[in-house]
Amino acid sequence: MIRLGVIGYGHRIHNVIDSCLRQVEPDLRVVGIVDPDQAGVRARLAPCDQQDARFYDSLDELVRSARPDALAIGTRCNLHAPYAIEAARYDLPLYLEKPVAISMAQAIALEEAFEGSRCPVVISFPLRVSPLCELARRYIQEGAVGEPVHIAALNYVPYGTVYWEKEYRNFEITQGLFVQKATHDLDYMSYLMGSPIVRVAAMATWGHVFGGTKAAGLACSACDEQETCLESPRNRRRNATSGTHLDHDCVFSVDAGSVETGTNEDCSSALVEYASGAHGIYTQVFYARRDAATRGATVSGYMGTVRFDWYTNELHRVRHHAPYSATERAGEGASHFGGDIELAYDFIGLIRGTATSRTPIEAGLRSIYACLAAKESAETGRFVDVRQVGAVNGPRT
Ligand SMILES: NC(=O)c1ccc[n+]([C@@H]2O[C@H](COP(=O)([O-])OP(=O)(O)OC[C@H]3O[C@@H](n4cnc5c(N)ncnc54)[C@H](O)[C@@H]3O)[C@@H](O)[C@H]2O)c1
Known about the structure:
alpha/beta; six-stranded parallel β-sheet
């Protein structure tokens, strides 16, 4: 049996444990939990965990009393780094949610904590390990494009309204969508290009679509614009558009923050330079709906182009200097495009000592350093150098 300790037993980590880790290792039990919302956790816990799972006030108490074989951190973004810094002391395999930090101070402290640690980590980056991305990476490594010289990555998010509802609009916790969302994309882009991002120029557009002046705490059920508002449950249902069809927080409320206090962007883009000298672009759009959805990348070099999209589940290879092109389709229906189950295989393998992590702590750090540079660039209008993992005197803002 694998004994798992969980810090922050929320919706995401419950799904990872119940649908993915247990699919790979049915004999896994949650034996210890640190989470102030015991009632909420009890309502989520699987029947097989209800008896063994005990609550503890601290990670230290959990490790000493519950004797876990591994740890998982599933709190909201602002607590990932503080808890991971503590976890680094125990050398237990750690499943860590992304983003690994929400500020440069947190990220540097996290890197320092792991410098002397033997704690092996799986960062929750399902896109990098998804079969479609791995296939693209293999073709690129085999020379399908020659030297990769450019990457163009798009992320038109059809469920973007979640970032203006619930906790995702709490800027204190998330620090915006470069940190919250692009951390996945800048990670897999570097993986495909085989090189870290060293410089970023970014732009963002705030307050043109979501956010606004509606009252704090307003929900659709209490709003007198349900007939006309395109975001009301009845209109989302009627127009067959994405987002919850149940009563929800107003996406045009002051609760979403403002440019002055910090708020999520309607859309944002980054121009990125790689250590290899290649460059690329990344764009994320959060008001897209229905089949406007797209997420994937086009990597090119003199010899060819490799392009894939997780929504169509297709990969195209074009030979620039021969009359052949190929299209391949991936299987459908898997969580995070098949990436979540791959992460589960990695994590269980790490615990069993039979696998190494494909998303180690360095991947999380490299990505957050690039995301923080993008955020800073969008805020200041300047190119920003990206701090590199292992840099003694890298940028500290
Ligand atoms: N990797 C991915 O693809 C992916 C997908 C979805 C969400 N996420 C990330 O997962 C994280 C959690 O999201 P969620 O939707 O599950 O949130 P959630 O609110 O459901 O879960 C957070 C949990 O942390 C608990 N918590 C609050 N304060 C705590 C504290 N001081 N100590 C310990 N626990 C505490 C809460 O009670 C809650 O149970 C977010 O950071 C989000 O970005 C990642």
